[in-house]
Amino acid sequence: MPVRIFLVEDNPVIRESLTETLSDLFSVEIVGFAEGETEAIVAMQPLEWDLALVDLFLKQGSGLGVARAFKSRGPPRRLFVVTNYATADMRTRCAEVGVDALFDKSVELDALFDAVGELASSRP
């Protein structure tokens, strides 16, 4: 069974690159995407998803707002923030709103792919 991923990313080039790379590496299904906080929250609520990949800075709102909205999502759903702004303070703020992991786009993509691979390998 593929990992169902919802992408919250306002940059179409990054969104397409993530989609292609994840699809090449793992059994995944991109179940939707959004470019802003409100759009993401509305779109994600009725969907079945296993993993949300959320950028921190969006066209409207922020990834922290998306994380807050799904803080009590419970396992097995995971929410990862993928950003270029991976400071120690931001990691703390993300943990406070229930983010499972934060990955720096510029230096931690391998770690992100490892984490997605772990999810994919644990699927029945």
TrEMBL record:
Classification via InterPro entries: Bact_response_regulator (IPR050595), CheY-like_superfamily (IPR011006), Sig_transdc_resp-reg_receiver (IPR001789)
Keywords tagged on the record: Phosphoprotein
Phosphoprotein recorded as keyword: yes
Coiled-coil ranges per UniProt: none
Name recorded for this polypeptide: Response regulatory domain-containing protein
Modified residues (4-aspartylphosphate): D55
Organism: Pseudorhodoferax aquiterrae
Domain Response regulatory: 4-120
Pfam families listed in its UniProt record: Response_reg (PF00072)
